[in-house]
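Cont'd.
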Amino acid sequence: MDSYFDLLSVLILLSSFILVSHKRIKSYIKTFRIQSALIALTAGIMGFHSLASEGSLDILLVCAIIILLKVIYIPRLLHKTYGNVEYKVEKDFFLNIPLLIIICCALVVFTYFSVSGISSLSADHINLQVVNSFSVILIGFFFMISRKKALGQMIGFLVIENGIFVTAMFSTHGMPFIVDIGIFIDMITAILIMGIMVVQINEKFESININKLRNLKG
Amino acid sequence: MNWFAPDYLLYGSMITYLAAAIAAIIFYKHPHLCTQSAQAGCILASVLGAASAVRLLLSGQEKIILKPFESTIPYVSVSMTMDALSAFFLLILSVLTLCVSIYSIGYTAHYHGKRNVSLFHFLYSTFILSMLLVFTADNAVFFFMAWEIMAVLSYFLVVFESEQEENRQAGLLYIVMTHLGTAFLMIAFMLMFYYTETFDLSASSQHIPETGRNLMFLFFLIGFSTKAGVIPLHIWLPYAHPAAPGNISALMSGIMIKTAVYGLLRFVFLYLGVETPWWGAVILVIGMSSAVFGVLYAFIEQNIKKLLAYSSIENMGIIFIGLGIAFLAFARENHWVGALALTASLLHCFNHSLFKGGLFLGVGSIHYATHTKNMEKLGGLIKRMPVTAVFFLGSALSISALVPFNGFIGEWLTYQSIFASISSGNAALNIAYIVSVAVLALSGALAAACFIKLFGISFLGLPRSDHAAYAKEVPLAMNLGSGILAFLCLLFGLLPLIPLNLLSRVIASITGNGVVGQLQGGFLAAWYPLKISGNNNAVSPLLIFVSILLLAALALAMLRILGGSRRERKYGTWDCGFGSLTPRMQYSGTAFSKPMKIVFKIFFQSSRDLKLQGDHPYHPESMEYTITTESVFEKYIYIPLLVWVTAWSKRVKLMIQTGSVHTYLLYIFVAVLVLMLYNRIG
């Protein structure tokens, strides 16, 4: 059981590395879809386990919602937004890809260093699943900082959210259903608003490079 | 069950203040009913509060503890303790509130139909309640909350007439300065918690090391001094007091700034304990500078409310001199002198609240009747508002420390405590004491001159404007309010042992020995000289008063006998056949203060400018004479500071707020990383 989770957490971490290494927005969306699918798989395994041991359907339901939202609906929404705004190719990142990867590695090491100090998480050994999923949060955040275009920020936000969700799942083995639902509703609202904002930014500046927002400063 | 026990009376007082506030809201559509119900509530509440305080002081009970309800928030407990010190300040608050509330029934009538009277009365009653809580709070957090509520409510009262730009600016300055002080208090409370791990004031402060004590003292001093308005933290006071409505100025000057004295006694004197002599020396120096500068600025002021505000700074200075002497004496283990100085200081607090309350009410009456605060537009009011004039004169005599009034007693005791502090050895301290006597004498004389100017220019002579010429006597309630205060000034001046006996219990409870026993003269037997044992200084206000009356009668009799039956003739002043005399030819307030402006040129930075128009200097067509004075503290301390802070903030703002979303994200990211690092190694 734990070995599955170890494997899945590593795969999720790997998917966020892949995300950072991509150069095109279409590939970001694809990677995000893969990551979400991996998370859905994790939730599914956990859900069957809890159905077998406690007879509760909660986590399976959450798994279904993840598949609906994060694997199907949001990537399609992102594609649509992308289709509305993207018509020229320009360099999307401040630092080059190898440097970004190295920084992300450093982030994982730093997370290991920080999280290993939490004694309640690691009774006898370091809880690697939490380290991996926590790193996903930081990498998602770092992704937001490193990308210039607004769609990059949207995806970074979604990856942070994924990271938080997996961290919660790995450290508690199933959050209360109502909390999960709340988080999903928050996320869907945020993504809808961001989608609209991206279109607006594109109309105003003829680009979705958010560095141009500097001009708004009074 | 004794319903007249101090704790029930105190509960009653608090509930009545709340009821007054609620009544103010309920009757918001009926201004008259609203004023009457709210102020009647405040009057009742203040009577209950005074009764509670006096009963506690007379009963000899050490303290009463009120705990209306338990709080589940950590470190916050709504608990109040009334010991003798709290009771004394509660007494000051209640007496002043009683008179100001009676006055307000008449005074707020001019707001009816023009302003939201309901809001005013709500703020008024809750403001008084917040001061009551400040005086009774017994843990630092609750004290802090009451202190902040007091600051915010008084801010709203200062800007109540907010359509005038200057009032809004005064309010802004006030709220900024008062929060500056609050910030320092907060640091001091945090230090308190850091060292003792409790906010309880009755806990021991033994474990606080020397540095911690000194730091806490400095923070408390700055925090409370800002509220007290002593120089150099006074700049809000001369703006806020004139901006507030008359009755609010009386409350602010009469009691709100005294919360600082209470705070210093409660937190420094009682909690920290006085062991280091330099604490007293610092307070003494602050007191001396406030006394002199306060009265100097008061003297040149033409705005009658501003003049009183500066005079409040002077009186806080005198109170701080007393406190400083007391702190020094206790640090040097001289308990008797310390107790005497503390008595003088607290008595002056009480006296100041009576006469300054009376003066602000009087000035409020002048403003009510004439709609101007400019002294140069007044004049001749004694004919038009005789009752106001008499009460105003009583308070003015009292603040000038003249004999049959109470101001004299407080200052006399302050002098005596300084004289008693001078002892052989330690020449530096002795010089400081002698200088402070000189400072006290100088400020006393200047204060008297200042109130001669205020009374003389405003009430005597001919009206300088139509406002003053058509002034009418104010309503009975207003005169009653200021009348009671003036009467109390005279009563406590003639029979000083009434307040001194109450005060003696306060001093006994906080220092261990009272002094009134050693001030000879029994209760009410004030004809017996008020004498300080140990030296031969004694005074009997009643005897002096009687002898003044006798001398006056004698002088009149002599005049009759020597002058024979000369007839009195009323006639216009001879004008040399030149033309009619106009009110503009009278001595003006500016002219009165001119000599002092020349003598103390360095503090006023005064400059004058005479502009002549016309061909010949001896036959000008028109002359224009302008005098400007500047406040040294604002010019050399506050304005440069303000300029620097503004420039620095602008620069830093440009550095931090780059406008780039990525930078903002980076801030959050770095903050998260730092927190994670702190989680590991912190």
